[in-house]
Design goal:
The complex is a heterodimer of chains A (296) and B (427). With 296 residues, chain A is mainly alpha-helical. Helix content of chain A is 77%, strand content 3%. Chain B has two domains: 24-148 and 311-376, Periplasmic binding protein-like II (D-Maltodextrin-Binding Protein, domain 2, 3-Layer(aba) Sandwich), CATH 3.40.190.10; 151-309 and 382-426, Periplasmic binding protein-like II (D-Maltodextrin-Binding Protein, domain 2, 3-Layer(aba) Sandwich). Chain B is built from 18 helices and ten strands. A five-stranded mixed sheet of chain B has the order 2-1-3-10-6. In chain B, strands 8-7-9 form a three-stranded antiparallel sheet. The longest helix of chain B has 22 residues, at 2-23. The A-B interface holds A 14, 18, 21, 63, 69, 133-136, 151-152, 154-159, 162, 242-249, 259, 262-266 and B 3, 69-70, 73, 77, 95, 199-202, 249-255, 259, 262-263, 266, 268, 386, 388-389, 392-393, 396-397, 399-400, 402-403, 405-406, 425.
C-alpha cells in the first residue's frame, strides 16, 4: 500500500508540473521580450549618468516640465489625434450609413473604400509626399491646369498646410477602417426596433438618434479606442511625409522620442517621455472602456 | 520518463547549437558595417577583393544612411564587438570618440613601422580623424575614406548668356539669381528660379546655411565654447538666406537634397550648394536636362572667406572588436593610394592629394581640381558630441525662419537659447 501510494503521488506531482512546463517557453519569451525591457526602461528613466557613475534621480522627469519641444510635440499629438479622430468617425459613420442601404454598386464601393487601409503607412507617406510636392506634385499640377494659382500652396513647407496635410493623410487612410467596423455594427442591429419606431411614427432623425446611435455605441467606442491609441503613437507616415517639419510644425511626440533616443543618444529621457505618452494613452483608454462597460 | 528524456534531448540540442555557432568564430574574419549607396559599395567591393587575396573571411552588414548611425551606436554602446570596422559620417566622430568607443590607431601604426598616417592625406580630412579636434593631445581614431566637401553648382550657359562671371561673393550670387529669375524661363516654358536651397529642419537647413554663416563672419561658438549663433553677423547671415530664398522655388523650407537636385536636373533652377556625389547625375542623359551646362566652383565669400562644409566618410575600428590587428591591416590596405583609386573610379572622391591630381582620374572627373581646392579649405561642423542634438535644434529654427514662422532675430535668439540648454545638460 505505501509503495503504491508513493507511486501515485509521484504521478500526481508530475501531472501537476506538466502544465507549468508547457506554459514555460511562452512565459520565458514574454519575460525576455516584454517584461524585462519594460522594467529596464523604467530603470533608465529614473537614472542619470554622472562623472562618478550612474545615480538614481528624477532629472529626466524634471526636464519634461522645462522642455518646450516636448510640450509642443505633446500638444501637436493631442490636437492631431482629436482632429483626425473626429473627421474619421463622422466620415466613417456617414459612409457606413450610406452603404448600409440598398444602392446600386454597393459591393464595388465597399471594396474600393478599403484600398487605402491595406497600404503600408510608409508607402502612404511616400505617395503623399510626391503628390504634395509643391513644384512637381500631382495635386498642384492639377490645380494649375484648372487655372488656380498654386504659388502659395506649398503644402509641406507651410506650417499650417503641413499640419492639415498630415491630418488629411491619416483621415484618407483610416476612415475605411472606421467605416468597416461601423458597417458591421449597423448590420448587427436587428430590424425589430426599427419596425417599432416606424409604428410609433418617429422621424428619420429620431430613429437615427434614439435607435441607431444607442445600438451602435459599442462599435463606435471600439473604433474610438483603437484609433485613439494608433493616433497617439503615430510615427511612420509623418516621419516620411514631413519628418516633423517645416521647423517643428508637425513634430509628434513619437518622433521626438525617437530622435531623443536614437539620434541624441539620450535613452533615459526618451524612456521618461514614453511613460508620459503611455500614461496619457492609458487614461484615455480606461475612460473609453469604462463608458463601454457602463453601456453593457 | 519520456518527458525527462525529451527535456534532456532539448537541452542537448541547445548546447550543440550554442557551441556550434561559437565554433564558426575561429579562423580570421572581419565584420564591416557599411552604408548603402556608392560610398559603402566601394568599400564592400574592396573587402571582397581583400578576401580573395588574403583568405580573411569578410562579413558585410550594409545599412541605409538613416539606420547606420543607430545600428553602430547601439552596438558600440552595448560593447558587443559585433563590428570590426565601421564606416562613419564625420559629424558622428566626436560622439563615438568622446564616448571612448573607438580604437586609437597610432600605436597600431607604430607597430607597423610608421609614426603617423601617410602625408598624402588631405590635411582637413585627416584632422577630423583626431579626437579632440585640433588639440595637442588629440589621438588618431579613424582614417578618411571618402573626401566630400560642398561645392557651388551653377548654370554656365546662363551665366555666359548674361555676361555674368563665376560668383566670387554671396552678393554676386544674389545679383545673378535676380537677373536669371527675372529674364529666363525654364525649358518647356515653366518658371525659372535663380537659386535653389534646402531648408528642411535638421541637417538640410544647417548644411545649406553654414557656408553663408561662416562667410558673413559668424561663429557657432566663441573661444570658451559659449554659443554665439545670435551674433549680429549670424542674424545678418540668416537675413541674407531669406533674401536668397526669394529666388528659390516655393516650398524650399521643406526641401532636402533630392528636391534641390531635381530642380537643377530639370533645369528649373540656376544655382545651388551641393555635394560632389551629385556631379555624375548631371552628365547622365536619362536624368539630366542640363547636359554639359552645369559648372562647379568653390563656395563664394562674404565679408570673410567662405569655406565649404566638409563631409567625409571615415573608417574606424571599434574598441571592443575582437580582431583589432587584422582590422588595422585591412584599414591600411583599403586606404592605400592604389585601393582608393579604385574607389574613386567607382565614384567616390578620394582623401589623398595624389589622387585628386591623378591624370587618369582628372580626365574622368574634371571637377577634381575644384574639389581639392574646396576640400583643402573646408571646415568641419563643430566638433562636439552633442552635434546631432544641436544641429536638430538649429535646423528647426532655421526652417522656421525660412517658412516665415519666425523673424531672423527671433529664430537666432531662440536657437542660441536652445543650444545653451543642450550644452548645459551635457556638462
Amino acid at each position: 500500500m505505501p509503495r503504491s501510494k508513493r507511486f501515485s503521488s509521484a504521478l500526481n506531482r508530475r501531472e501537476l508540473l506538466l502544465p507549468y512546463l508547457l506554459v514555460a517557453p511562452a512565459l520565458v519569451v514574454l519575460l525576455a521580450l516584454s517584461i524585462y525591457p519594460l522594467v529596464y526602461s523604467i530603470t533608465i528613466s529614473l537614472q542619470q549618468e554622472t562623472t562618478t557613475g550612474v545615480v538614481w534621480s528624477l532629472v529626466h522627469f524634471k526636464r519634461l516640465a522645462s522642455d518646450g519641444f516636448f510640450r509642443t510635440a505633446m500638444v501637436h499629438t493631442l490636437v492631431y489625434a482629436v482632429a483626425a479622430l473626429t473627421c474619421e468617425v463622422l466620415l466613417g459613420l456617414g459612409l457606413a450609413l450610406l452603404l448600409n442601404q440598398q444602392i446600386r454598386g454597393r459591393g464595388l464601393f465597399r471594396a474600393s473604400l478599403l484600398v487605402p487601409m491595406m497600404l503600408p503607412t510608409v508607402v502612404v507617406g511616400v505617395v503623399w509626399r510626391l503628390l504634395l510636392n509643391p513644384n512637381f506634385g500631382a495635386i498642384n499640377g492639377t490645380l494649375k491646369r484648372i487655372g488656380i494659382n498654386t504659388e502659395s500652396l506649398t503644402w509641406t513647407a507651410s506650417p499650417r498646410l503641413a499640419f492639415l496635410a498630415v491630418i488629411a493623410v491619416d483621415v484618407w487612410q483610416w476612415t475605411p477602417f472606421v467605416f468597416l467596423v461601423l458597417l458591421a455594427g449597423l448590420q448587427a442591429i436587428p430590424q425589430e426596433p426599427y419596425e417599432a419606431a416606424l409604428i410609433d411614427g418617429s422621424s428619420r432623425w429620431q430613429t437615427f438618434r434614439h435607435v441607431t446611435l444607442p445600438l451602435l455605441k459599442p462599435a463606435i467606442l471600439i473604433v474610438l479606442l483603437l484609433r485613439t491609441m494608433d493616433l497617439l503613437r503615430v510615427f511612420d507616415q509623418i516621419f516620411i511625409l514631413t519628418e516633423g517639419g517645416p521647423g517643428f510644425a508637425t513634430e509628434m511626440i513619437s518622433l521626438y522620442i525617437y530622435r531623443t533616443a536614437f539620434r541624441f543618444f539620450d535613452f533615459g529621457y526618451a524612456a521618461a517621455m514614453s511613460f508620459v505618452l503611455l500614461a496619457v494613452t492609458n487614461v484615455v483608454s480606461v475612460v473609453y472602456l469604462k463608458v463601454l462597460q457602463d453601456e453593457r | 520518463m519520456r518527458l525527462t528524456t525529451l527535456l534532456i534531448l532539448v537541452a542537448l540540442i541547445l548546447v550543440v547549437l550554442t557551441f556550434g555557432c561559437r565554433q564558426q568564430h575561429s579562423g580570421k574574419q572581419l565584420t564591416l558595417a557599411v552604408v548603402s549607396g556608392v560610398e559603402g559599395e566601394a568599400l564592400k567591393q574592396a573587402a571582397l577583393d581583400y578576401e580573395a587575396q588574403t583568405g580573411v573571411h569578410i562579413n558585410i552588414a550594409q545599412f541605409p544612411y538613416a539606420n547606420l548611425f543607430e545600428k553602430e551606436l547601439i552596438d558600440l554602446n552595448a560593447r558587443t564587438g559585433a563590428y570590426d570596422l565601421i564606416m562613419l559620417d564625420d559629424p558622428w566622430f566626436p560622439l563615438f570618440a568622446g564616448s571612448r568607443f573607438l580604437t586609437e590607431l597610432t600605436p597600431l601604426l607604430q607597430k607597423r613601422g610608421h609614426d603617423k598616417p601617410d602625408e598624402d592625406f588631405v590635411e582637413t580630412s585627416l584632422a577630423i580623424c583626431f579626437h579632440p579636434y585640433q588639440a595637442d593631445n588629440g589621438t588618431l581614431q579613424a582614417l578618411p575614406y571618402v573626401g566630400n566637401s560642398q561645392l557651388f553648382f551653377y548654370r554656365q550657359d546662363l551665366f555666359a548668356k548674361h555676361n555674368l562671371k563665376e560668383p566670387e561673393t554671396w552678393n554676386d550670387v544674389l545679383a545673378a539669381a535676380k537677373t536669371i529669375q527675372e529674364t529666363e524661363t525654364a525649358e518647356g516654358g515653366g518658371k525659372m528660379y535663380g537659386y535653389v536651397m534646402r531648408a528642411a529642419q535638421g541637417n538640410a537647413a544647417v548644411a545649406d546655411f553654414m557656408p553663408i554663416f561662416w562667410a558673413f563672419g559668424a561663429e557657432m561658438f566663441d573661444a570658451n565654447g559659449t554659443p554665439t549663433v545670435n551674433s549680429p553677423e549670424g542674424i545678418e547671415a540668416l537675413q541674407f538666406m531669406l533674401e536668397l530664398g526669394k529666388y528659390s522655388p516655393p516650398g524650399y523650407a521643406s526641401f532636402n537634397a533630392d528636391e534641390v537636385s531635381a530642380h537643377l536636373l530639370q533645369g528649373t533652377a540656376a544655382m545651388s550648394i551641393n555635394w560632389p556625389a551629385w556631379i555624375s547625375s548631371f552628365s547622365d542623359p536619362a536624368k539630366s536636362k542640363v547636359l554639359g551646362k552645369i559648372q562647379f566652383a568653390t563656395l563664394p565669400r562674404g565679408r570673410k572667406f567662405g569655406p565649404a562644409e566638409i563631409g567625409n566618410w571615415l573608417i574606424a575600428i571599434p574598441r571592443h572588436s575582437q580582431n583589432v590587428e587584422p582590422a588595422m591591416d585591412f584599414l591600411l590596405w583599403a586606404t592605400t593610394a592604389e585601393q582608393m583609386k579604385r574607389s574613386a573610379l567607382r565614384g567616390n572622391p578620394p582623401t589623398r592629394r595624389s589622387l585628386f591630381r591623378d591624370p587618369e582620374l582628372v580626365v574622368k572627373f574634371p571637377a577634381y581640381p575644384v574639389q581639392l581646392r574646396s576640400l583643402e579649405r573646408s571646415r568641419p561642423r563643430p566638433r562636439t558630441p552633442q552635434w546631432n542634438e544641436i544641429e536638430n535644434a538649429f535646423g528647426i529654427f532655421l526652417s522656421k525662419a525660412n517658412s516665415g514662422e519666425l523673424s531672423p532675430a527671433d529664430a537666432m535668439n531662440q536657437a542660441n537659447a536652445e543650444i545653451e540648454k543642450i550644452l548645459k545638460r551635457a556638462q
